[in-house]
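Lab notebook, design round three. We kept the backbone fixed and only want residue identities now. Task for the bench partner: fill in a sequence for the structure below.
Input structure tokens:
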């Protein structure tokens, strides 16, 4: 007996097979972006910010959820470096610093971003590597260390791009985000 999937049959009439498979593979996300005309998407219409976040797999979904809740879904460029702000500033990995600034330049040129959002997170392994110890053992000390790195990068951003706004954030492992003043 041959199984015939009505969803696939119905979808085939709405999309060509390739578009349907892309939509399914991307969890339907492509359909949200498809609302913009192709020329507008290519020109970066609607892009508000560049987000720098950490590569930690534990927080990928929470980061996307946070940006969506902020009304920024499909309206930001995203660069990922281990340690986020630390990755962009540490002398231990200078290629990461260079990569960050090249991406900021590209986001400005291609998408006219207005803001750089930097999102560190608690219990970050990159901080432990660079600092040579577990910086998350004491929450107050961890907050001070993240705040110092975030503000260091913030100062560099404003020195190089005085017209760009910035936002400094720390995410807890439960997805809750704190703003750093």
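Proposed sequence:
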């Amino acid at each position: 007996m041959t199984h015939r999937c009505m969803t696939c049959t119905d979808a085939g009439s709405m999309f060509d097979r390739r578009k349907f498979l892309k939509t399914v593979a991307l969890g339907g996300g492509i359909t949200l972006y498809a609302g913009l005309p192709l020329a507008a998407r290519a020109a970066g219409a609607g892009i508000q910010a560049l987000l720098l976040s950490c590569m930690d797999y534990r927080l990928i979904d929470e980061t996307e959820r946070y940006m969506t809740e902020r009304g920024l879904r499909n309206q930001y460029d995203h660069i990922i470096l281990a340690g986020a702000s630390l990755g962009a500033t540490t002398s231990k990995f200078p290629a990461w610093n260079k990569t960050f600034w090249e991406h900021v330049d590209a986001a400005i040129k291609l998408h006219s971003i207005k803001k750089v959002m930097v999102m560190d997170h608690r219990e970050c392994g990159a901080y432990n590597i660079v600092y040579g110890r577990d910086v998350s053992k004491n929450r107050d000390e961890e907050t001070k260390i993240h705040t110092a790195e975030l503000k260091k990068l913030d100062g560099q951003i404003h020195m190089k791009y005085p017209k760009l706004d910035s936002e400094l954030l720390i995410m807890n492992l439960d997805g809750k985000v704190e703003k750093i003043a």
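Keep this in mind before ordering anything: The two ends are 64 Å apart (CA to CA).
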